[in-house]
Q: What sequence folds into this?
């Protein structure tokens, strides 16, 4: 008779709990199969950037009306959708923090607040970094699209203008198993 394990353990590095810009890679394994998902933190409209752990929890949201559960949708397409299927997978998250995020307001972030913030240097600084992180995400997804669960296909990067090249090269090696 097989002995049942009493517990599982999840260790979360503190950096996963800190709001900020980042690129993350989710590696999903099931037996001999492996898939990847690439994402970013740093909202394109509101000047906020969730913590990496917040993003993975959103990706695993079970509510069908969720707009952040892209990973669950992709897993369902792979016929991984119930408790027995979930027991057969592991998910590893690689987190690449990117400097430059500073909280610029304690106000509720809505369209009116964003309108007030847009002329400020803090908002402009936020958008400068956020756009670079988005460019990196798009370049990675474009380059690796055939190996990813992402529904988007990325955008062709400008030659020799991929931001954060060390992160880009590290993720290319990770996904290509180099």
A:
């Amino acid at each position: 008779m097989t002995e049942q394990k009493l517990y599982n353990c999840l260790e979360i590095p503190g950096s996963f709990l800190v709001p900020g810009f980042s690129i993350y890679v989710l590696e999903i394994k099931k037996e001999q199969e492996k898939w990847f998902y690439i994402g970013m933190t740093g909202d394109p409209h509101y000047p906020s950037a969730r913590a990496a752990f917040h993003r993975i929890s959103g990706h695993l949201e079970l509510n069908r009306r969720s707009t952040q559960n892209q990973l669950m949708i992709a897993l369902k397409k792979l016929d991984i959708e119930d408790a027995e299927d979930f027991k057969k997978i592991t998910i590893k998250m690689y987190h690449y923090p990117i400097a430059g995020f500073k909280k610029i307001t304690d106000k509720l972030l809505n369209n009116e607040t964003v309108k007030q913030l847009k002329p400020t240097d803090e908002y402009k600084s936020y958008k400068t970094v956020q756009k670079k992180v988005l460019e990196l995400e798009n370049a990675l997804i474009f380059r690796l699209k055939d190996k990813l669960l992402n529904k988007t296909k990325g955008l062709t990067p400008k030659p020799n203008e991929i931001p954060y090249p060390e992160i880009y090269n590290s993720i290319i090696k990770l996904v290509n198993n180099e």
User: Anything to note?
Assistant: Residues 14-175 form one domain. The beta strands are 21-30, 33-41, 89-98. The radius of gyration is 18 Å.
